[in-house]
Q: What sequence folds into this?
């Protein structure tokens, strides 16, 4: 009988090499964020189902893994609906828990509060290559900072984190939801259609300019003149450097508040300060929308030439914390696509490991004393019994990542000086030379 | 309106100081286990509900958080039972996932395989002080090692991990399921009653010798003579040193296999080697049972004078992997009670943090350049706008863990040399000296 040992559909086991690589990347990111004063917090993986369904999650709300109430009798009563049976769900992101966390613990937290979160989230998406139903998110959030310091610091910290794990040559794309709203208004789009306009614009890289235009005019039935005006203004604002941008923005969108322009100028000034050392570039991208409805100010994404999707994304959300705290608190967040970065960097961590190979005749107390002595000198030691042909066993050890070995035979401790040997790059060529 | 921001019943949010302490403890434990060759693996938090209900989990199976199938219509059809609606559950331990993991990935893993796991598990227990419905387990397992090397190495590694986090003075309590079975047999207890005998014996610290005797004879209706014989043999084997133990065991249980005695002797020999350097003691404890039914050989627990319950526990389980692999593979595991250790050690990690305090008039680009320079020198820097009275703000900063500060005022970068000041131990006594 074949026993099925696969994990649940859409999830996966992480093998030692993969975990080592992930832990290595996470440690580097954590070290950078900690130097910026971000403190790791943790919330439970389960949240109240009504909180998860509360409207912050957009499309993700349809993908919740729902958890049954405890103590419900096994025979379901007639007329019961599923929602009567469910009280909890697995979180689909780290933002919903963060807003609850801040609402509940704000009195004891620093102001502004720099939050760092790393943890699993769950979405019941159709499984496909590179997409899993359990995956990790890695978020930093700066809560309580009204000024553009928040945006700039998040971008600076995140680009440094990416550079530290080896991802240089990144591009920061920048826009502002206030700019998008002012532009929609200036173009003559009715306010109730702005969200639809943003949603269609967000599909630009998939359906192209004509696709967006068609969807807005034909499917959403928005006035053609206003749509064309909006799209023309957007096209005119692409590929501008900082100097030209400051001139072009008020021309394209005369009603744009001065604050939006100076904030963008501060962000681009600071980006200019760090581009050289990080090997990064930046651009103002008037087509950038970002999916979630809760953004209220600057929005940003970081791209890398090796992948079409972004490595990280975020923005300001000044009216989200208010839902849990009862009063608005300015906030800004940046989320690193941890799984994407791990995929991009691959499993490359190697740890020097000595195998202490012992023949059965050697007393275990002696074997362990040798291993203990090596460990006390900081070495990683795997104690392994000798079995089969030595050459074949050494080849297996090398394939499992062992880098050197010692061979303990009866009397070897007393009679000979133990010698540590390095396992070759080509384990199958190795021979026993003792 | 008061907004409820509490996490789900029985779960909790972890604040920055708590997470820092936990991460610090985990890093130290991880470092020790890695030096013993243990490699971290990770499995999904969700498992197939039938796997979780498969019998390995004992009492924990009653405490599973069950997850609803996706795509089930909201109106439940008449005659539906809950089990029709559920396909997944949150894991209640790390052993069930480990056996599945090993069964599925054995071909690519080292032999023996040294597994290290750290992750959350869920149990819908009645919430009480110090017990949570989501908590972390920290397990090492050595799979594929038949000899007592496994037991000895797990004990040596775990006592070293505990000593490294600052828990010295621990006591290792040791027994063997093979000894308990042979004892029950020698006493004349019928084989079908052995499990009941072990379960009652396991309650010794709660109900005492007379309680155990009464339960066995009166409640479980076991033959009084056999019960008394078993309990007498057990009492006679307490508080023996290694030398006396080797003599006393075959006397008390004449049918005890020689292998059990030599294995115990090897373990106690090795324990004697490490007691001095670890400040630990050990004892053979014939009353030790450990709850789970799957143990097949030596079992052990580590205690500490500061707590009545054990800090870690484990044992050999040679017939568990077979259920997922199709053939038995010897295995031995040790689990650290991570939450208990964290409770015992408290939040004591402190990280030096500089606050860069800036007046609004200072350009952000200059503020960030100062912070960047400090971070490049490895410092942890929190950039914070000046607000209110300086003394009061500094006191708040100190209460949030900030250890020193710099004060940026207009022109301060150009005109004066910036000075970093240390925040006092008594923040309310601090005065502005500028």
A:
């Amino acid at each position: 009988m074949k026993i099925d040992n696969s994990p649940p559909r859409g999830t996966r086991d992480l093998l030692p090499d993969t975990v080592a690589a992930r832990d290595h990347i996470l440690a580097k990111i954590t070290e950078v964020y900690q130097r910026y004063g971000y403190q790791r917090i943790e919330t439970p993986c389960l949240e109240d189902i009504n909180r998860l369904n509360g409207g912050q999650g957009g499309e993700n709300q349809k993908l919740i893994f729902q958890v049954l109430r405890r103590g419900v009798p096994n025979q379901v009563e007639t007329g019961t609906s599923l929602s009567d049976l469910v009280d909890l769900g697995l979180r689909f992101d780290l933002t919903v828990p963060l807003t609850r966390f801040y609402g509940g613990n704000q009195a004891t937290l620093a102001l502004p509060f720099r939050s760092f979160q790393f943890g699993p989230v769950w979405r019941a998406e159709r499984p496909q290559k590179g997409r899993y139903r359990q995956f990790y998110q890695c978020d930093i959030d700066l809560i309580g900072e009204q000024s553009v310091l928040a945006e700039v610091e998040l971008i600076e910290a995140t680009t440094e984190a990416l550079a530290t794990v080896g991802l240089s040559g990144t591009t920061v794309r920048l826009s502002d939801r206030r700019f998008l709203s002012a532009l929609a208004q200036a173009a003559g789009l009715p306010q109730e259609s702005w969200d639809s306009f943003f949603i269609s614009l967000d599909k630009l890289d998939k359906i192209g300019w004509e696709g967006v235009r068609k969807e807005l005019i034909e499917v959403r039935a928005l006035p053609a003149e206003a749509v064309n005006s909006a799209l023309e203004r957007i096209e005119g604002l692409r590929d501008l450097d900082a100097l030209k941008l400051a001139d072009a923005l008020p021309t394209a969108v005369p009603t744009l508040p001065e604050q939006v322009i100076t904030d963008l100028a501060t962000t681009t000034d600071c980006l200019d300060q760090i581009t050289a050392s990080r090997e990064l570039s930046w651009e103002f991208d008037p087509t950038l929308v970002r999916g979630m409805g809760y953004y209220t100010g600057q929005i940003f994404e970081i791209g890398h030439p090796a992948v079409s999707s972004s490595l990280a994304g975020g923005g300001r959300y000044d009216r989200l914390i208010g839902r849990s705290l009862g009063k608005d608190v300015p906030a800004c967040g940046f989320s690193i696509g941890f799984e994407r970065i791990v995929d991009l960097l691959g499993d490359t961590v190697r740890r020097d490991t000595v195998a202490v190979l012992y023949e059965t005749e050697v007393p275990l107390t002696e074997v362990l004393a040798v291993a203990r002595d090596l460990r006390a000198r900081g070495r990683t030691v795997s104690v392994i019994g000798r079995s089969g042909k030595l050459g074949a066993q050494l080849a297996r050890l090398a394939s499992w990542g062992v880098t050197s070995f010692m061979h303990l035979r009866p009397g070897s401790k007393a009679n000979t000086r133990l010698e540590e040997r390095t396992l070759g790059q080509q384990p199958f060529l190795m021979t026993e030379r003792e």
Remarks:
- The longest helix of chain B spans residues 258-278.
